[in-house]
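Shift notes (night). Ran ATP-grasp target RiPP while the centrifuge was going.
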Amino acid sequence: METNTKAYLVGGPRDGSSQDADGKALVEIEIDGMIHRYIRTTKQHGDDAVVYNYDGMVAPGGGEPGVEDPAARVASPKADEQG
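Came back to this:
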């Protein structure tokens, strides 16, 4: 049985393009210092590629701090009551 190693990318910055995926479940592409992720689906694109859907963008170093500063959070009155 022949397996397709080509990924057809759907969505995101590489929408409509193809690249070799080596049968991986996740394809990560670095663009402008950020990692864009595509996840394999069960769909075929033609006879030679598996469809990979865009899953979003992440920083190469993992999660980054958001707008909220956890140290500056004010606990709820109910949380204070429960100690």
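Strands lie at 6-10, 18-20, 26-31, 34-45, 49-58. The mean pLDDT is 81.
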